[in-house]
Amino acid sequence: MKHAFKMTALALAMGPLFAVSVAQAGDAPPKDRAAQQQKAAVASARHMRASTLIGKDVRNPQGEKLGDIKDIVVDVHNSQVHYVILEFGGFLGLGEKHFAYPVRAFRTTADKDELVLNVDRDRLKNAPGFERNKWPDWGRPDYRTQVDKYFGDSVAIKPAANMRLIRGSELIGKDVNGADGKDLGEIEDVVVNLANGNIRYAVLEFDKAWSLGDKRFAFPLQAFRTGAKLGDDFVLNVTREQLDRMPGFERSKWPDVNDATWNRDVETKFSTFKPGPTAAVTAPPAGAYDGLFKRLDTNNDGVLTEAEARRDPSVAKAWNNMKRDKDGRVTRAEFEQRYRP
């Protein structure tokens, strides 16, 4: 059920810079001071959809373009953006590399979704980067430690003990199963607090079996259970009765994520939501269904078609739950992840 999507913008605020703006406001005349403090408060509370996080230009304080956003890196266990991944193009001859910058290294403004990076050129050139086709393993500390050490404790986010980092582009479109292991839907988007990089909530598109039409629902990201492996589907244990009490909207009528009334409604409904236990959902041992897959894959091309799946009643019954991509086929890895007899 993966959807193609284009992610086009990013704005994340830097706490220390926000504090400076408030201090500067204290030196202004009373009227101007109030306006500046109000603008700083608006910036600190601003939110944005994650589907607008990637692709946005990054500029320096003089308004010159430095590069653009290629991705973000999110701790899904703690609902926190850790890094923004930048590509500088031809600027300073850095076009062949990507760079991870701590989210707190940026600032934004109250009236524009504009990302500003105040770093001198030598600092930009010497930052630890990686080849665009050789992304780091975010589960290993090697590259992360280099980045955090380079930029310092004032902007680095301290890793949590249960941290699980994935790319934002992998979080959007992530398949979600119910407590019974069957397809529930997929994460269509997430909403980020621009001031601190916190993931405010995830928006879930439900499977057609729920008969919800084009309606979407918001859930706290920590309500989802992640699998043992990064590629595993998420799990959410929610009943139809609980769903009716969650904040929802039509796909074509997304709320203004900065609307105070909407955000109060989200907070109120989240405060009473308690997902059911998901510990009973366990994955089968690796390779448990290899024999079945090989028997059905009659042409040995490593994927199953619906015609091949029909040769086994149990697989035929589970076909719609496994076939989530538009190509109408199921790979060996997808079969292992999604097939449940």
Backbone structural class:
alpha+beta
CATH class of the largest domain equals Mainly Beta
Give me the number of helical elements: 11
Q: What is the CA-CA span between the terminal residues? A: 20 Å
What is the radius of gyration computed over CA atoms, rounded to a whole number of angstroms? 22 Å
Most strands sheet: 8 strands, mixed
Oligomer: single chain
Mean pLDDT: 81
- Helical content (DSSP H or I, runs of 4+): 25-40%
Shape-level CATH architecture of the largest domain: Roll
How many beta-strand elements?
17
Summary keywords:
7-stranded mixed β-sheet, Recoverin, domain 1, SH3 type barrels, single chain, 341 residues, disordered N terminus, alpha+beta, 11 helices, 8-stranded mixed β-sheet, 3 domains
Report on this model:
Helix content is 27%, strand content 23%. The chain folds into three domains: 152 residues, PRC-barrel domain (SH3 type barrels, Roll), CATH 2.30.30.240; 100 residues, SH3 type barrels; 49 residues, Recoverin, domain 1 (Orthogonal Bundle), CATH 1.10.238. Strands 2, 3, 4, 5, 6, 7, 8 and 9 form an eight-stranded mixed β-sheet that branches. Strands 1, 10, 11, 12, 13, 14 and 15 form a seven-stranded mixed β-sheet that branches. The protein starts with 14 loop residues before the first helix and ends with a helix. With 341 residues, it is an alpha+beta fold. The N terminus is likely disordered. A hairpin with an 8-residue loop joins strand 12 and strand 13.
